[in-house]
Amino acid sequence: MNGCPATAVRPSVGGWGAICASGALAVGVLASARPEVLFVALILGGALPMWLMEWRRAEPVQVEHSSRRGLSGGLTVSLMMIGSIWVQQTFGGSQGASVAPLMLPALISVVLMVIFCLLFPQKVGASIASVGEFIESPVAIVSRAGRERINMLGWCVKCLFLPLMLGSTLTWLQGLFAELPTQSMFVWFSVPMAAMYAIDTAFASIGYMSTTRRLDAHIRSVDNTWLGWLSALSCYPPLSVLVFDVWLIYKGSNDWIEWLHDGTFPASLWGGAILLLTGIYTWATIAFGPRFSNLTNRGIITHGPYRWGKHPAYLCKNLSWWMISVPFLPSLSGGQTLAHCLSLLAINGIYFVRARTEERHLLQDSVYRQYSAWIAEYGLFARVLQMFRRRAGDSV
Using a CB cutoff of 8 Å and minimum separation of 24, what contacts does 60-66 make? Predict the structure, then answer.
């Protein structure tokens, strides 16, 4: 078996982005900046070094398009973004409500987009014009498989997830801002947790804003299966409101902090394990540099935690949920404990389906096929299994 395929993004790209983003966040916190200022500092602190390091790696493709297509594409993308924010804000529960502050900036951006498209339709980006070309043939929405379809689906992905990631970043920073002055014994846990999730969602936001060939971060392909989209959307509002809050309720009235509120060594050990899992989860997002995105292939990442396995983020997130929620707390009855465990197992199953559909999509890429074969032989679980087999053989 050959070595692991080269990663699409140098490890230093995400590394410097994380260092600068963390530095900007730390300076903002020390300066007692408002969450909105921390938000801007975190996004720019992470984005600018990565954009500078990756800029001009690939020249943009020039595509001629008509004025009509530029205008219709710009209008379509604008309406998709506004509609996405409205749906998330209206039906997305508390998590979806995080996008509310984005509505006014989005409306202003839409007005500017429309004005630009009216005045300079020929200068509209090729991907936006491609959306205009795509919608001119409604029948092709299901059957067309060319660049227009990829661009259309790519914009759907961005319009769905970018507002959520931006809103979540601001929400985590507000939580961080609220936790800092508290005297709780668990501030050592809550502050790093909020900071890591803020960095995670900020890097995800940067990824959705960086789909350009000048960064070699353009979308190569988009998952076009219903199961892939449904499993992904089930984890985000508004659909997650039904999945997590109505159908699969796994959280009880207590979590690990109430369970071990006395600050004992087991509590510290438990909290440290949760932080470790969250740190690996955040690292997995940082490893993408400016290429993070759901449901798309923008280059195969093979460094960082992806050197250990194909889905470190999903694995660590789901393990941390078991530890945070502790659905087996003795405060619950036997029936409640079983129901909560089964619900969380079902949610784990959704993420398993997400992982499998992502693999099915990425296996179209020859680099991912090589990476998948390498992980099957040299990944963390493969090495552990080989070690047990060797020990079992030695004991015979």
Answer: 60/126, 60/212, 60/213, 60/214, 61/126, 61/213, 62/126, 63/126, 63/129, 63/130, 65/122, 65/124, 65/126, 65/129, 65/130, 65/132, 65/133, 66/121
**Total count of residues recorded for the chain:** 396
CB atoms within 10 A of CB 283: 21
Which residues make beta-bridge pairs with 297? 221
Provide the 8-state DSSP code for 138: T
pLDDT tens for 136-177 read 765 555 555 567 788 889 999 999 999 999 999 999 999 998
Nearest to residue 271, comparing CAs of 258, 253, 284, 252? Answer: 258
**Percentage helix, strand, coil, to 5, in the chain?**
75, 0, 25
d(CA 72, CA 75): 5
Phi-psi region of 263 (alpha: psi -120 to 50; beta: other; left: phi over 0): left
pTM over 0.90, yes/no: yes
DSSP string, 20-49: HHHHHHHHHHHTT--HHHHHHHHHHHHHHH
Residues 6 or more apart in contact with residue 280 via CB below 8 angstroms = 305, 312, 313, 316
- Chain-wide mean pLDDT for the chain? 87
Strand partners for 194: none
Residue 297 DSSP SS3: strand
Do the beta carbons of residue 351 and residue 314 sit within 8 Å?
A: yes
> In this structure, what token pair is assigned to residue 149?
């379809």
DSSP 67: H
For 36, list phi and psi in degrees, rounded to 5.
-65, -35
DSSP 303-356: SGGGGT-S-HHHHHHHHHHHHHH-TT-TTS-HHHHHHHHHHHHHHHHHHHHHHH
**Is the Cα dihedral 58, 59, 62, 68 positive or negative?**
positive
